[in-house]
Design brief:
The complex is a heterotetramer of chains A (486), B (382), C (319) and D (670).
Chain B (H helix, E strand, L loop, with lengths): L7 H12 L10 H5 L10 H10 L17 H5 L6 H15 L4 H13 L29 E4 L3 H4 L1 H16 L4 E2 L10 H6 L2 H18 L3 E4 L2 H9 L9 E4 H10 L12 E4 L13 H8 L5 E3 L28 H11 L4 E4 L2 H14 L6 E4 H9 L1
Helix pairs in contact in B: 1-5, 8-16, 12-13, 14-15
Chain C lengths: L4 E6 L5 H7 L5 H7 L1 E4 L8 H6 L5 E7 L2 E3 H13 E7 H6 L11 H11 L14 E4 L2 E4 L3 E6 L9 E3 L6 H12 L67 H4 L17 H11 L6 H8 L5 H5 L15
Chain D lengths: L5 E6 L3 H4 L4 H10 L3 E7 L5 H13 L4 E6 L2 H14 L7 E5 L1 H5 L5 H19 L8 E4 L4 E4 L3 H12 L4 E4 L14 E2 L4 E2 H14 L3 E4 L2 E9 L2 E8 L14 H5 L3 E3 L8 E3 L1 E2 L11 E2 L6 H4 L4 H5 L12 E7 L1 E4 L3 E3 L16 E3 H8 L19 E8 L14 H15 L3 E6 L9 H10 L3 E4 L4 E4 H7 L1 H6 L12 E7 L4 E7 L1 E6 L1 E3 L3 H8 L26 E3 L9 H19 L3 E4 L4 E3 L19 E4 L4 E4 L9 H5 L5 E3 L4 H12 L2
Parallel strand pairs in D: 1-2, 1-3, 3-4, 6-7, 6-18, 7-10, 18-29, 20-27, 21-22, 21-27, 22-23
Antiparallel strand pairs in D: 5-30, 8-9, 11-12, 12-17, 13-14, 15-16, 19-28, 24-25, 25-26, 31-34, 32-33
Helix pairs in contact in D: 2-6, 3-4, 6-20, 7-8, 7-18, 12-13, 13-14
The chains are: A alpha+beta (486), B alpha/beta (382), C alpha/beta (319), D alpha/beta (670).
Chain lengths: 486, 382, 319, 670
Amino acid sequence: MKKITIDPITRLEGHGKIEIFLNDEGDVENCYFQIPELRGFEKFCIGRPVEELPRTVCKICGVCPVDHHLASAKAVDAVYNVDPPPAAKKLRELYKAAHTVHSHVAHFYALAAPDFVLGPDAPAAERNVLGLVKKVGLEIGGQVLAVRKAAQRIQTLIGGACTHTVFCVPGGISKPLSKEEHSEILKLSANFVEFARFSLKLFEDVVLKNKAYVDLILSDPYQLRIHNLGLVDGNNKVNFYDGRPRIVDVNGKEIAKYEPRDYYKHIGEHVEPYSYLKYPYLMAKGWKGFVEGEDSGVYRAAPLARLNAADGMATPLAQAEYEKFFSTLKKPVNSTLAFHWARLVELMYACELTVKLANDPEILNPDVRRLPTEKPSEGVGIIEASRGLLTHHYKTDEKGIVTAVNLIVGTTNNNAAITMSIKKAATGLIKKGKVVSDGILNMVEMAFRAYDPCFSCATHSLPGKMPLIVNIRGSNGEIFQTLKRD
Amino acid sequence: MNYYTPFLEVTKTILDAGGEDLKKCYQCGTCTAVCPWGSVREFSPRYIFKLAQHGLEGYEGDELWLCSTCKTCVDRCPRGVGIIDVFTSMRSIIAQTGLIPPTLRSVLGSINSNGNPWAGKREERNIWAKELGLKNFSGETTEYLYFSCCAPSYDPRTKKIAVATARVLKEAGVDFGIFGKEESCCGESIKKTGDNTTYEKLLNSNISLFNSKGVKKIIAQSPHCLYTFRNEYPAHSGNYEQVHYTQVLAELIKGGKLKPKKEFRKKVTYHDPCYLGRHSGIYEEPRDILKSVPGLEFAEMIRIKEQSFCCGGGGARMWMETPKEERFGVMRIKEALSVGANVIATACPYCIQMLEDGRTALGVEDRIEVMDISEILSATMF
Amino acid sequence: MSKPKLAIYWAASCGGCDVSILDIHEHILDVDKAFDLALWPVAADFKYKDVEAMQDGEILLTLFNGAIRNSENEHIAKLLRKKSKVLVAFGSCAHLGGVIGMANLSKRDEILDTVYNKSVSTHNPERIIPQTLSRVKEGELTLPKFYNYLRSLDQVTDVDYYIPGCPPNPEQVLAVVQHIIAGKPLPPKGSVLGAGDKSQCDECKRKKNVKKIREFRRIATAIPDPEICLLEQGFICMGPATRSGCGVACVNAGVPCRGCYGPPPNVLDQGAKMLSAIASVIDSDNPDEINQIISQVEDPVGTFYRFSLPTSLLRRSNI
Amino acid sequence: MDKPRIGVFICHCGTNIAGKVNIEEVKKYASTLGDVVFATDYKFMCSDPGQELVGKAIREHKLNRVVVAACSPLMHESTFRKVCMLAGLNQYLFQMANIREQCSWVTEDPELATVKAKAIISGAVAKSRYLEPLNIKEVTINPSVLVIGGGIAGIQAALECAEAGNKVILVEKTPSIGGHMAQFDKTFPTLDCSACILTPKMTSVGQHNNIELMTYSEVKEVSGYVGNFKVKILQKAKYVDHSKCTGCGICMEKCPYKAPNEFEEGLAQRKAIYTPFPQAVPNKPVIDKETCVYFKTGKCRACEKFCEPKAVNFNDTDREIEVNVGAIIVATGYDLFDTRSVSQLGYKKYDNVYTGLEFERINNAAGPTAGKIQLKDGRTPKSIAILHCIGSRDKNYHEYCSRVCCMYALKYAHLIKEKTESDVYNCYIDMRCFGKGYEEFYHRLTEEGVDFIRGKAVCVLDYNDAKTLYPDMVEALGITDSEEDRKKLFVRTEDTLLKKTMWLPVDMVILCNAMKSRSDAKDISRLLNISIGKDGFFLEKHPKLAPVSTATDGVFLAGACQGPKDIPDTVAQASAAAAAAISLVQRNKVVIESATAYVNEELCSGCKLCNDICPFTAISFDESKNRSVVNDALCKGCGTCASTCPSSAIKANHFTDRQIFAEIEGLLNL
């Protein structure tokens, strides 16, 4: 038996690693996706005052710290049983919307678009954001950077610091928005919607009008029939900040909609000895391994799953795009590569939401804090991170000192799904020991990049490639072929 | 001709047995001069200490057993000598040789076989509570353990005070239960005899019982039990919240949850038990209770609170013979009579017995009554 | 003429440091112009072998972020040291151990037990714990060894410079990068780059008075006055014992500094220094009252050593 | 700095060190330590030959660091610093390693002591590598002296200083100087009349050109440093202009309102406008605002009407003045133990139970009874018990021996015997008669028929209580119910020599209560940065070698504020304090500590954490530069600020972090 190691493929908490085992015929026997790193937040957050957690757990991920900060803040509100005043809530939501804009733009233009705009077969050295800029024109390239910068700036104005943010405190936020900050936000967000429209147009022109791409999207190696998880509001519309998680099965039927505090009744986590990252699954189905179909316990999170799990979008332009999405691809959509389109639908929503909230006079209300009055005890906070549902669960003693922490973070939701997508891609592409070198690597990579796993965000902005090495080893472990993509 | 020279090995034995403080004594005589025995006979703790400091013979005589552990001397000692501890450690050395007063031997025997010093059967321990319908203590359902002390179980006089207390507590709605035959003597007096082996047996037996039944809070009838729960049990992993019943009742009266109803038209004085007062610092609660009783006229004696005069029943004196003219109880009754009281109230089973004894010895049964605080309260309630 | 080589590496970190390098926005192109990127796993090809094949000292500059949590981290740290002329510990984790250094309060097994056994949502009846070597039916899979204790970069190898912060302020990063690109001389080895030479208080605009603390308060249950020094108000702010450079971001956002920029120059142990300072200004002569006031500090280690536990004087008792 | 060349000198201190520590082994070890180029030992390193040996080695071996392993720095640091200086080495390049107090004296096992000595020397050597030379600093000195307190200690100190030609400011809280001594009748053991020997001194103070007397005044604030103190003094409103007042006394005669007389211990009364006693200095009255009815009702002004020189001024106000002095002598005296807290002794409960000072007034010819020893009802007592050790030598009150009580008890016994026929009982624990002529006085008293009972008196009962509680005793002692007997007091004690419990039926009881520290001692200690011992009295710098100095340079102690003292000791100490102050202020210049702290401007962020923690108020804040500043002259180098400064911007010279960490590492590096 041969073993192919893709090590490292970058990481979530550390480096991701793929091991592909080939059977004696040279076909893919099995595939393992490993996360070799652990930092232990669940342990060392114990003993800390709970209000310090939002600014501590954001260090789980420097790419989506905002999501951790907000999920944590909501958990802490729940621990103290305090509801922030409207202005605080709206500013948190605005902050989150701006972050989504920033994150989705970065992912689409830096990661996804080069594959489509330049083509999967384009020379690797060009298949990056710089190549993209060359192809679509400097002006647009500049706009991409400008929107990302603007979204980042909006976050800094609201939250004080942009990467590891600190502004959420129990029952609200630490500072009201000043008039000057507000007018800057209005200016910064002015062309967001226009930019989202442009991005969708670009996707339509480049991808949807290209049959080869549509075929690729619908091709078998990129299909994965598993369930969907996403946060929805009272009208079952996609919501990033508030609401209840909804689970919709492979056929588009609702399995459950739960209160955040009941999350553990619906989501379980499975442990494998070869990865430090756990495998969440649906409690209703149980852990049945890496299998597809109605009985599978595996689900997906993030844009595609969110759209599948919802009945629509809460803003008009996004709703129109939502309808277009599902009229083109039948609901529920099981194609992994459709994530990119779904992400752009969400980008529109995030842009509309940013503008809407930025124009809401309430956000200038200086009353941004309710002091907790009740004894702290236990709370769960859930939000949608760009990369999937984020669940933070804290318990404290009477003084608000943390006694237990449980976390199910964005990309973790997709751990099993990613494993399966990679296996599918590999199985479809490696036959009889024949290895198509660069092609395989990029195809395999496309399979998990679609999930926007945390470890891939913001990459490719420099001349460079996805770091993939595939070692094909003999059964005694010696490398007899090394594939590098460079 | 006797030739004296210090025999410091003996001294060291005493120090090792817990009498460390012996070294601090500078022979001022305060202890002797404040000792209640000084009112009836010559007795100089200071002199015993001097002998012990030198390890000389004489300290181990009968006088060693006089101390009633009333603590007056300890509180007044300018050198801070724990005089009771020194006496106890000297007694324990004697106890090891078996040379303890004969009356105490039968007490220790009873403790060993029955778990109480009164030679009563273990099965009859909760006989006093038979008709009261009290519930058995269980940590899950009951807040307080009521610890009645051994005396009420086997002594007809003190039985009444346990009954009175239990009735009043019940009336006030206090959630409490009792153990009955499983529990043993708290061990306070036994420790003072110096028999540490027996004492530790009692202590461990009670602590394992309490812990297994989930005891958290104890209401003690006797200040001696209270003292032991408070000062001795914690070091042996017996950690409970302990209160004296007068504290509970005073609190209930203060909070309006208990109201003495009937008038009690008598002139009452109050005798501070040493173990409630000096040993535990509880002076006001019993007085507060008495002052809340309608119709009751309260009068203080001369020696009160910190200066209170011992009844003579502590330090295992309860089981030793004292000549009639030397009984402290007699003197205390006289003092009560001098302020015109027709009731002397107190809050300790030992004091009750010693004062009753004093009353009889003086033949003044018609002039003065001895009553426990709980009995007075009970009389105004039922 | 070939360009000098630049390497950027992440060990046990969150990626925030890399984001802060990206957050120099358009200036990233200057970096591209000036350097050949030898290694940047977050953004570019990553080849252990290529690095191993390089000559010692071939890389001019390595910005190393993240702490040393496992065997792989340590291996790469040593490898990069050998291959780099200048090795920079970049960000709190590499510099001091970082937030994740608080994990040193627990042993390895306790951490694993919490994550894989005690979590309410985890169903692990066989009590499976990830292993460095595990057998699956197709063969063997390996994972790096998760160490008992986390270490900073300079605890495993020699470090030339430090750039502090969690994450480092992009403007400060840019200034350092431009300084290097311009070929200006670097300060003595061991210096901290990309930060100020004083404590946070120097840049803090809040009004400061003589400090006398009678009560410690928590942001959870009190709202600080926005104009006055937080410490004076009883909110423990690590600003006085923290190097300047971030622009007092947290304090300006209305919450106390937690010390990610590490100790100011000359300070050996950030937490100990702050403890010592706070102990000095407790406004009481009465030991009982002092104890009562001090007991209001609920989480001393998490407060004073949020970012620097592994490199503090306390660390020795751990090993 | 050159490469360190360290010399290590190990002292035997006779057998003090060598008896425990293996010197040879330690010396061998020391010579192996890095940078040590010379190591030797000597019997007494502090002796002349020892010092020469060090000096010679510095020159011969070109040593630039010197470590002497001997006793404590307090003992001999200055000795060896001088040796270094003479040998041309900056004195701050010297380091002491204490292997006596910290090692040989406290470690029992010789082997362990040797190991410990090595560790201590290793630490000192490691630290010495980082020692830096420091410059010697001098400041000029203000020649004036402030004396706080106008009792005999303050009077003596003020006169000594004034006689030496220095200007003295004497501040006294009450309207007159004189203190407790003015209240005494006779003084033991010579039985001099207290007033006769005190009043001339008081007058001298009042008239001395060099003494500025500020009565009815209090020190409010002290800043500055040795040689240059700034003192704020509050002069309370006297309502009498002393520059106009002639002291005729008519005002006091005419004043209709009275208050208890403090000087008479409340046994008599005084007027609202008063001088405390006839010989008061200044002998001019003040108005007690609390008692004066004018201040309450706006009516009366009798004193004003009768005052011819128009000295009464109801508009007078408190004033604060500032003075500059070079040295301060604290002579604030003592309070007496409040005997009410020993309730069983019957003070204030029964008549005829008096404190020592009350009896002093009763016995004083100028006192309320004109010196006649009498009972409350005017009878002459037939028996008196004097009870020793009231509130002293007692864990429940004060553990210390009050030192003067035995002697004043004997004095009372003598005076009683001299003036009456009364029996006198002294209940004592130990007689402590240690001073010159004291034992002889005790001897004399035993011959005067005073009865001594060795045993502490534990309670005092009156007739009624005794009769109730101990009827047998009352009867046995032959006490009748005659009017006279019914006024008896009963004192109980054990005669420990007889092993008998005693009852003493007496007419009067005198409680010899302890001297204790003044109730405002804490305020004074804060004002002057001087320490208080656990007995409550001010702490001298060293009990033997610096008994009048304090931890604050330039502040000296005189009299009972430092501990219970009799008059001869007080006067002696006051003279010593004066001498110390004079020798300081007449030096013109004083060398101040160079091992001080300084703020590194480059690093200070202006957080102000250090601003209020300096025990010597040496730190101020420079708003313009936004940084803190240490005043060199005030700084004592204690290091509090250096350890406070959260950004290590404050460096304590001679105790830098680098030096201390090197020392710790050296200690651990065995």
